Amino acid sequence: MDILGRIRYHREEEQKLHWRGTFAEYLQIIKENPQVAQTAHSRVYNMIKDAGVEEVNGKKEYKFFSDQIYGVEESIEKLVEEYFHSAAKRLDVRKRILLLMGPVSGGKSTLVTMLKRGLEQYSRTDAGAVYAIAGCPMHEDPLHLIPQHLREDFYEEYGIKIEGNLSPLNMMRVEKEYGGRIEDVLIERIFLSEDKRVGVGTFSPSDPKSQDIADLTGSIDFSTIAEYGSESDPRAYRFDGELNKANRGIMEFQEMLKCDEKFLWHLLSLTQEGNFKAGRFALISADELIVAHTNESEYKSFISNKKNEALHSRMIVMKIPYNLKVSEEERIYKKMIRDSDISNVHIAPHALRIAAIFTILTRLKEPKKQSVDIVKKMKLYDGEVVEGFNSQDLEELKKEYPDEGMTGIDPRYVINRISSAIIRKEMTSINALDVLRSIKEGLDQHASINKEDRERYIDFISIARKEYDDIAKKEVQKAFVYSYDESAKTLMDNYLDNVEAYCNKNKLFDPLTGEEMPPDEKLMRSIEEQIGISENAKKAFREEILIRISAYARKGKKFDYNSHERLREAIQKKLFADLKDVVKITTSTKTPDESQLKKVNEVIARLIDEHGYNSVSANELLRYVGSLLNR
Ligand SMILES: Nc1ncnc2c1ncn2[C@@H]1O[C@H](COP(=O)(O)OP(=O)(O)OP(=O)(O)O)[C@@H](O)[C@H]1O
Ligand SMILES: [Mg+2]
To answer: pLDDT tens-digit profile of 590-631?
Structure first.
C-alpha cells in the first residue's frame, strides 16, 4: 500500500473506533463489558499481561518489556507483581508513587516510555478502551456521575466499585448544561495520547525557585474571571496541569528528587487519598499511575532528610539495576546501534561481545566464594556451562550481593566510545581491539570514575582482551579447517569408539579390512593430553565420559560435541594443534607463496561468507592472529 493510502486507511480505522453517547447508553456498555470501567492501574497491568507472559526457568518473562529491555527480567517481574499487580487489585499501593531507582542509562526512561506508548496503543483496542465525560479537560471517569448515596446500589447491580468524586467543573456542568439529568450527560470514547495531552503526561523539574505548582495542577485563567464573576468558578480555571491531563492514564515524573522538597509536599494528599488540590476547589480525584525515576545518590540524600519521611513512606521504590549478562548486554548495544547514526558501519564479529565482557565485569562484585573468580562468575551469570558449577552455585553467588548492578559502566558510554572511534578515524569498519582502545582512552575523560576504579577497569580491559585473543585464534583456526564442525565430530566419534572398546575391554574392527584391532591408545592419549589428563587419570576420565553418555541415553538426549565441556576443549585443542604450524606460517609470512596465498584467500572467503566479516575485518583478524601465534 502506498503511504497516502495507508494514511487514509489509518484514519478510517481510527474513526471506526469513535463512540459518543449518553451516560445511559454508556451504562449499557459497561453492563456488557465491565472491564471498560477499570482503573488506570488495572488497565496498565492488563496491558502488560495481555502482551503475554512466558515462564523461563521458573521465572516469568513479560513479553511487553522483553522486546526492548533485556537482562533485567527479575527486576521487571518484581515490578509487575509487587506494584502493577497489587495496584490493579485496588490495593493501597495504587495510591503510592512508583519510584524507579537505578544507575544512569539503566533503562528507566526506556521502561516508562514503553508504558506510555503501550497505553496509547492499548486504549485503541477493545480490551483497553477508555471512556470519559465529553468535553472534560481531565477526561473524567463517567462513573463519577453516580452520586455517593447510590453507589452501594450501583455496586449491587453492576459489580463495579466507584472511587472518587465528581470534579467541581463537571458538577457545575451537569447543573448548567444538563439541568441535573446525569443520564443525559454525553460520554465519549477517548484515545490516550501524549501529543494531544490525553491521559499521558510528563513532568520534568525546572529551576526549583521558579517551579510553579500550576505545571502540575493547572491555574486560574484570569482572562475569564470577568466573564464568570469569581475565581472560585471552576469555569475560570484551566485544568491543564500534568496531573489533570494524565488523568485516566499515566504520568511520568522525571528526575523527581531534583524537585524542591516543598514542591513535593504538594504530592502528599495525592499519594494518601488519591486526590489532589487545585485552586480553590474541593479535592480532585485522580485516577492515574504516577511513575517517577531517580538515581541512587539522589535517593539516598532524599531519604536521609527527616523532613521527607512522610513522602518517602508514600512511595514504592523499585530498583532497576544494570543488566549483568554479557549476551544481553550485546543485544542492548545492537539495539542502540540500530537506532543510531552509525548503523551503516561494519562492526566486526565479537567486537560488541568483547565490549560487553568489559562492561559486565565493571558491574560485578568480586565473588566471596574461594573457588570462583570474577570471569567464571561472569560466565555463570550469562548461563554458560562452567565445569564444576551448577545452578545452585549460581543462586548462591547472586545472594552474595543483593544490590549488585547499581554501579559500573553504562551502555551509553560504550556506544559513545564506539561512535567516537568511528568518527575520529573515519572508519567504515571497526573491530574488538578498536573498541577496547577507545573505551580505554575514554576512561580518563569519564568524570565520575575515581582512581581506584580506573585501575580496576584497566585490568578488566586486559581480561576482555585475553578473551578476545582466545576467540580470535579459534575463529581463524576454525576457518582453516575445511568444515570445522564435521572434523570435530569425526574426531570425537573416533575417540568415543576407542574409549568404549577400552572400557569394555573389546576390540574394534577396521572399517576397511574388517580386521580386529585393539583400541588406539596413541590417538586417545593425544587428545587427552591436550587438557592435561595424566596417564594415571586417563581411566577415570574415560569412564566418566561413558557414564555421561549412558546418562544422556537414559534421558533420551543426544550426546554430541557440546555435551561434555572438557572433551570438547580437548578435541578442539587437538584439531588446532595439528593445524597450528600451518596457521602460523600462513598468517604471518610477508611473502606468501602461491599455495599459501590460495589458502589465505580461502580462509578470508570463509570468514566473510560464514562468520560475518567483511574483507577489511577479515584481513585484520588474520594479521592479528598471526602476530599472536608468533609471540
Ligand atoms: N536493560 C536494558 N535493556 C535494553 N536497553 C537498555 C537497557 N539498559 C539501558 N538500555 C539502553 O540504554 C539507553 C539509555 O537508557 P535510558 O535512557 O532508558 O536510561 P535511564 O535509566 O533513564 O538513564 P538516566 O538516568 O541517564 O536518565 C537506552 O538507549 C536504552 O535503550
Ligand atoms: Mg532517564
So the answer is: 777 787 788 888 889 999 999 999 999 999 998 898 888 777
At position 84, the amino acid (one-letter code) is F
What is the DSSP secondary-structure string of 164-232? Answer: S---HHHHHHHHHHHTT-GGG-EEEEE--BTTTTBSEEEE----TTT--THHHH-EE-HHHHHHHS-TT
Cβ neighbours around 190 below 10 Å, total: 22
- Residue 557 CA to ligand 2 center (angstroms) comes to 46
pLDDT value of position 27: 96
Mutation pick for ligand 1 pocket among 114, 332, 407, 410 (CB with most ligand atoms within 8 Å): 332
Instruction: Return the residue whose CA atom lies nearest to atom 30 of ligand 1.
Output: 107
Give the whole-angstrom CA distance, residue 619 versus residue 631: 19
Q: From the CA of 323, give the closest atom in ligand 1.
A: 1
Find the farthest-apart pair of alpha carbons in the chain and give their distance in angstroms, rounded.
Answer: 113
- DSSP assigned state of 28: H
How far, in Å, from the CA of 109 to the mean position of ligand 2? 4
255 CA closest ligand 1 atom index? 27
Low-confidence residues of the chain: pLDDT under 50: none
Nearest to 197 by CA among 243, 140, 259, 133: 243
pLDDT at 1 (0 to 100)? 65
* Runs of H (alpha helix) within 295-390: 296-304, 309-312, 326-338, 351-363, 374-381
State how far the Cα of 87 lies from the Cα of 41, in Å rounded to an integer.
Answer: 6
- The whole-angstrom separation of Cα 78 and Cα 72 is 10
Pocket test of ligand 1: the residue of 65, 74, 105, 406 to mutate, having most ligand atoms within 8 Å of its CB, is 105
Atom of ligand 1 nearest to the CA of 111: 18
267 touches 311 (CB < 8 A): yes
**Cα 416 from Cα 418, distance rounded (Å):** 5
pLDDT confidence of residue 584: 75
Neighbours of ion ligand 2 (CB under 5 A): 109
Q: Which amino acid is at 432?
A: A
Query: Per-residue pLDDT tens for 239-277?
Result: 888 888 999 999 999 888 888 777 777 777 777 777 777
- Cα 492–Cα 384–Cα 542 angle in degrees, nearest 5: 30
Looking at residue 232, its pLDDT comes to: 76
* Alpha carbons 215 and 203: distance in angstroms, whole number: 8
The region, left, alpha or beta by phi > 0 then psi within -120 to 50, assigned to residue 483 is beta
Beta bridge partners, 56, equal 59
Q: Kindly report, residue by residue over 2-44, the tens digit of the pLDDT.
A: 899 999 988 888 888 999 999 999 999 999 999 999 999 999 9
- Ligand 1 atom nearest the C-alpha of 112 is 18
Query: What is the pTM (predicted TM-score) of this model?
Result: 0.85
